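Known limitations

Files may contain more than one protein. Parsers should not assume a single record per file. Below, a two-record file is shown to illustrate correct handling: read the sequence, read the token line, then continue until end of file.
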Amino acid sequence: MSREFVVCGLCGGEGKHVAPGIDAGGLSREDLDNDPEFAEAYMRGDYDVPCVRCKGLRVIRADDAELLEQASVERANDRRTAAREDGDVEGYLTAGDERWQG
């Protein structure tokens, strides 16, 4: 196994990202304008969680990067199929968001 690491492609090396339940359905400018307190908290990072891919470490093993990407695509396809079968439009539209793990 390689000892090389690469920057996590999901969080961009930040080690965190917004919880998918907050913005995976998409936020509009209007959403933020209509609730200035939410917008401020969102921008401040109050809704951030440790990255689900790198677990907050900001990097992943180079050997694992491709495998993780492939697994993420497979999970997204599974979520899309389940959402389609359930008639869950929002679930279908957000299924490709890599932050939904598990």
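...continuing to the second record:
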Amino acid sequence: MTDLYFEDIEVGSTSRAGEYAVTEAEVLEFGRRFDPRPFHSDPLAAASSAFGGLVASGCHVFCIRSWLASRLEPRPALVAGLGLESMDLPNPVRPGDRLSLHVEVLDKRRSTSRPDRGIVRMRNTIVNQGGEPVMTLVAKLMVHCRGSG
């Protein structure tokens, strides 16, 4: 994979990664282990929930986002994630969905305390096969400058 250094990242640029196929077995395994609410972990109980069926946990969808982000080409020469400014879950993820990640660079600045690194803000949108957003977030990343790592 090609690393994209701070100097190479352009505000307004976009990239995509995907697809990721969500399976019922994966939704159940993740739900039962990490978020055991009935609509994540029990297909029968999920059918009578507000969702009308089994749905993936938001934590699960975030993990899928991380997996997809690691497959961006090129991808930022990441030092570390610095946090999220916002995260929304406008539509549920269901077994059988195929998810893709769309990323847009919002802004960037060189670090004042570590001039060999830069801070980049990126809007991440995960969409399903119908183009509906299922997760949106703004992530802050620390990225290597060219020649630093």
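Parsers that stop after the first record will miss the second one. For reference, the second record is described as follows. The longest strand covers residues 98-110.
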